[in-house]
Amino acid sequence: MSFEHSKKILIALDYDDQEVALNFVKQLSPDTCRLKVGKEMFTYFGPAFVKELIDLGFDVFLDLKFHDIPNTVAKAVTAAAKMGVWMVNVHASGGFEMMSKAKSALEQFGDKAPLLIAVTVLTSMDETELKRLGVDKSAQEQVIYLAKLAKEAGLDGVVCSAQEAKALKAELGENFKLVTPGIRPEGSDAGDQKRIMTPKQAIDAGSDYLVIGRPITQADDPVKVLSDVNRSIA
Ligand SMILES: O=C(O)c1cc(=O)[nH]c(=O)n1[C@@H]1O[C@H](COP(=O)(O)O)[C@@H](O)[C@H]1O
């Protein structure tokens, strides 16, 4: 299995117990995956937990989906960069000015700046939910619309569903990174995710990174599921 391929999996560490999370992480190698810390673990355990993962040698995606006034978000991504994370995200719906200010704030970190990624339409949303928010476009149209805005603002890529990956690569080019949650290996439970794909389908569609949480973390043998997923995309 190639090194590059195996680093495409970003495991969503959505645990409410730090010891359980660390026991799981200690069974993994930083050569086979990266780790994502989101709102639940960061709210419980904060920057100290993130630093512990970095000290264990893992690249960390800090998934706090910042959405606020431009000044506040620029300062928040600066704090993330100082923590040493590999990737951080904001909501594209926070607007062009918010995204471009956040990008500019990271310039001071040079090649140590984290990748800055914009969330487009959450993978838990479908068109019924978009209509409720007053959005009349299809999910794919809305994702492309927000992704173009993110690219214009200088961001490195977007979070989207793998279902939109092919159209986004065609529209925005190979270098614009696509981070896709809503990944469900064959036979696993969709849960609250609506726009889903299997790992292999997602890679074939053009996803650069696959975010996978519960199908791995809640499996009887998480390490085996991770290695099966890595094998399926190698
Ligand atoms: O930004 C994200 O990571 C994210 C965006 C999105 O549109 N959908 C989405 O599920 N996520 C995150 O990806 C992870 C998916 O976890 P599972 O559904 O358990 O695989 C969760 O931690 C979500 O917070």
TrEMBL record:
The keyword Lyase applies. Keywords: Decarboxylase, Lyase, Pyrimidine biosynthesis. One of its GO terms (biological process) is 'de novo' pyrimidine nucleobase biosynthetic process. One of its GO terms (cellular component) is cytosol. PROSITE patterns: OMPDECASE (PS00156). SMART domains: OMPdecase (SM00934). It is an enzyme of class 4 (lyase). One of its GO terms (molecular function) is orotidine-5'-phosphate decarboxylase activity. CDD domains: OMP_decarboxylase_like. It catalyses: orotidine 5'-phosphate + H(+) = UMP + CO2. Substrate binds at residues 14, 36, 63-72, 123, 184, 193, 213-214. Residues 8-229 form the Orotidine 5'-phosphate decarboxylase domain. InterPro entries: Aldolase_TIM, OMPdecase, OMPdecase_AS, OMPdecase_bac, OMPdeCOase_dom, RibuloseP-bd_barrel. Pathway: Pyrimidine metabolism; UMP biosynthesis via de novo pathway; UMP from orotate: step 2/2. Its EC number is 4.1.1.23. SUPFAM superfamilies: Ribulose-phoshate binding barrel. The active site is at D63, K65, D68. HAMAP family: OMPdecase_type1_B. Belongs to the OMP decarboxylase family. Type 1 subfamily. NCBIfam families: PRK00230.1 (NF001273), pyrF (TIGR01740). Homodimer. Catalyzes the decarboxylation of orotidine 5'-monophosphate (OMP) to uridine 5'-monophosphate (UMP). This is Orotidine 5'-phosphate decarboxylase. It comes from Pseudoalteromonas arctica A 37-1-2. The lineage of its organism: Bacteria, Pseudomonadati, Pseudomonadota, Gammaproteobacteria, Alteromonadales.
